[in-house]
Every structure is written in structure tokens, then in C-alpha cells.
């Protein structure tokens, strides 16, 4: 499983937590289910590398068999016109396949114990042993390291693609966490403004109540103030709902239970914009976006697959070689027809049964060898040719997809940077608008104090100021999100958050 090394670790165990943006990002990286799913996907993908390497596994093969037969026979040396035969065969070998396209069978040992009542066999039981070494080398099809390692290289490429996919998911989670976090901050600021707005209206209600009682103000002014206060109470309820909804959305991306109480830092801190030139934006994005690395690996995999299937269209041409050492041992056959054939002649080195049979192998005297070649030419090769056609099409597809990704990355980076600049300008416009509405309210309050302004005018000035403050707060949060989105489009969001991904 991939491990995420972060600057700060913490356990979210308390009943309530006022989390900072940095803590929210780390919590999301630890608990987000999209990340956990992709980590599991990466773990499963890496197992295919081991599976591909299984082509070169070495096998210990062992076998034992028994035979007991009685067959009718017309041989003059057969006992009771039947031939009785018993045999026990033991065999073992080390078999495997090499990246060069070499099939081998080493220490191929077999031992047969043979018993018979045939009168012509001088030894019964007899022990026949063999120790052989066999190799087969592919020279056309399945020849060479590049061909035989193709599946391993492709599996490694797929694992790297999966790891990059994890990086993409983590980057998108960071972006989503920041977006949800700033949504919550914005919703909290709106809620605070709604309470402040209600307090302002209630102050006017109290003032108007006194003046109406004194007879210095018409009752309509009090009713207007009371109606506005009631309206602002409704706005508080709506703001609370929006704030709670934003917190639930944040909890979801953080992997926090919905019944967990959390709060966010309501202060809006402006991020710094690192000014870059247009050419630099393209350069940074092209060198950091994981999608480009991902598609490049897919293209390499398609090229490896193309080379493999090109090789599979070749004829089978193999060279086989074998070296064998034989051993023999046994005991005199009690059923030997000595009256007819004379006394059995058994060399002394063979008359001690099993030990002589195995022991004679060490002398390496009884050597036999063989070498040969086999050629198999397909008159039609539809399967291999069709797979080659598919591999060619896949390569063309990934070439086009790489070009497409490059275009999309360039476009996204430029577009996100323009969003940052426009949001930065929007901050200034919203700030100026806020200052103007503050001046208007100050003026209306002065006029209201001297009895020139009406209650309705003052309430409208308050409402307009609150709206201007909301717009200003929105411009701040939009700008911060656009900065993160810009970093995401450049592919540097992981590095900026000092996250190290290792396997």
C-alpha cells in the first residue's frame, strides 16, 4: 500500500474540532474513500508484476508409478506360457524457462526397478537409472529478452499508471477539500453577517419604538423596522441551513461521520499569487501534469505489446540438445534359462543392485547425447496477425490520446490562470463597492440621526451594505479556490502541500 508522508499527523477523535485548512487537507488525504479505493487498486495492480514474473518460475517435478502385469506369451522362455512383469519408476527434475527464450530441464533423474520371469533376462530385479540435462532454445518466435519480458514491462507500466492515478485522485481531493472548506467559510461569514444584520435592524426597532411612544415618529416607521427584523430572522434560518449543508459536504470529502461536530476558521486569508508568464505556465504544466505521464506510459505499453505480437507472427524454430548419463545394477534372475542360454554373465560393477545403478552414474562413462532442430511454419496465422493489428491500432490510439491530453493540459492551465486574474480584479471591484456602500450607510445614519432620512432608506442602506460584504467575501473565497484550481491545472498541488508518495 502506498504511504502518504505528511508534515503533520493528527487523530480526529474529539467530539468537536475547529480545523484549519491545512488540517482539513491532511484529514481528507487520510480518510477520503476515493483515495482508499485507489490505494487498494494500486495494491492489486502491483500483484500482476509478480504474476508476470511467474513465467520464469522453476518447478520441481516428481513422479512415481507402479506397473504389475501378466500377459500371455508364446516365447519358449516364458514361464507357464505367460509373461509376468513388475516395474516401479521414480523420476524428478528441475524445469523452467529463461528470459532468453530457453526451456530447461536440469537434473532430470529417473530410476526404474524392473522385475520379470522371462528366462532371457539375466537380471531380475534390475535397476536402470538415467541423469539427463535438456535445453530447448527458441530462435525466432519467443526469442530474446525484450519479447519474453514484455508482459513484465507492461505490468510495471500498468502499476505506474495506477500509482499516477492515485496521485491524480489525491490532487483532486485536495482541490475538493479546499473548495468545500472555502464554501463553509463563506457560508459561516454569511451566517455571521445575517446575525449582524439582525442586530442592526433591532437597534432601529428599539429606537423607533421609543420615538413612536414619544410621538416624534409615525408608526409606519416602526412597522417597517419590525418587518425588516422579521425578514432578517428568516435570513438567519436560511444561512444556518446553507452553513450546515456546506459542513456536511465538507465532512463527506474529509471522511468524517456526518454526526461529527466540526467548525472551520471563518477568517478569510488571501493566498499569494505567484505571477508567471504564459510560456512558463505551459512548461510547468507539461512537466508536472500526471495525465501526460500516464498517457506516455500507456503509449510505451502499446509499443511493447506491438513488439511482442510482431514476434508472435514468426515461425517456431527451436534447437534442442540433451546429455544423458546411464546407470545399471541388478541381481541374478532366478528364472534365467541357464540350461539353454548358459550361465548368466553379469559384470561385477552391475551385480549389486540399486547402489551399482546409481553409483555408476558418478563415473560418467555411459554418456549419450542428442541435438536437433524443429521448424514449424504456420500456413495461416490469423490469431497472431489479428492481435498484431489490434496492437497497431492501440498504439495509434494512444498517440492521438497523448496529443489530446497535451492540448487539454495547455488549455486548462491557461484558462485557470485567467480565472485567477479575473477573480483578483473582482476582489478590487468588490472592495471598492463595499467601501461605497459603507459611505452610503454612514451618510444615511447621519441623516437619520437628524431626522432627515426615513427608516426605509436606512434599512435599505444596511441591506445593500450586507450584500456588498457578501459579494466581497465571495470574491475572496472564489479567488482562493481559483489559486488552488490553478495549481491543480499545473500539476503542482501535491508538491505544494509537501506530500510524498512512495511505495
Name its key features.
disordered N terminus; alpha+beta; 10 strands; 12 helices; 6-stranded antiparallel β-sheet; 58% helix; two-stranded antiparallel sheet; single chain; 2 domains; Outer membrane efflux proteins (OEP); 503 residues
Account of the protein in words:
The chain has 503 residues and is an alpha+beta fold. It folds into 2 domains: 295 residues, Outer membrane efflux proteins (OEP) (Up-down Bundle); 142 residues. 58% of the residues lie in helices and 20% in strands. It has 12 helices and 10 strands. The protein has a 6-stranded antiparallel sheet with strand order 3-4-5-6-8-9. Strand 4 and strand 5 form a beta hairpin. Helix 2 packs antiparallel against helix 4. The longest helix has 68 residues.
Name the average pLDDT. 86
Radius of gyration: 43 Å
**What shape does the CA trace take?**
elongated
Q: What is the architecture of the largest domain at the second tier of CATH?
A: Up-down Bundle
The largest sheet has its strands arranged as: 3-4-5-6-8-9
Query: CA-to-CA gap between the ends?
Result: 7 Å
- What structural category do the secondary elements indicate? alpha+beta
